[in-house]
Predict the structure.
Amino acid sequence: GAGVSQSPSNKVTEKGKDVELRCDPISGHTALYWYRQSLGQGLEFLIYFQGNSAPDKSGLPSDRFSAERTGGSVSTLTIQRTQQEDSAVYLCASRYRGSFNSPLHFGNGTRLTVT
Amino acid sequence: GESVGLHLPTLSVQEGDNSIINCAYSNSASDYFIWYKQESGKGPQFIIDIRSNMDKRQGQRVTVLLNKTVKHLSLQIAATQPGDSAVYFCADYGGSQGNLIFGKGTKLSVKP
């Protein structure tokens, strides 16, 4: 079946511009996550949506970062006034959150380059 | 704070040999652990998971061992193949069902 889809796969932007990254989770998955991965590094948690609950924004690095999830499905991560240190791969993941823990399923990410 | 880390950043093995990738965790409340494989240019791919009520779980050519006493888990890959070359991450939810916490990863290189 279809996995997590992210677009665009690559984005090059100039410093100071705003960017929007899109994530289409697996159908029926109630939880959606955004992570950031810098070159050669592990995954840094950014934000987590679960159903209609308020999102966990504890990982967002600054107020330039925001995300929304419309209709409990598609999510958009927005970075305003991009800086060079924002260059990274932004990964989206989803899972069905039930009574027991379950693994996240990841998309292939959006590689963001800020020049 | 909680953390999930790895003992070795790189591992090089001969094709056909077995590979062992280790991981330590710090949160004793962690009750579910996952191993991911990440190939270049792709997102992490689920390999195998284990719950804390188990010590061992086997998949196809992979085995995960969990030692709760020393808060350590390992991923064993049997008869390692060139296609196994990737970065491997362990991860856990830190005892909750919220944020999945990842270690920095071990890069596995398979020599033909």
Observations:
- Chain A has a mean pLDDT of 93.
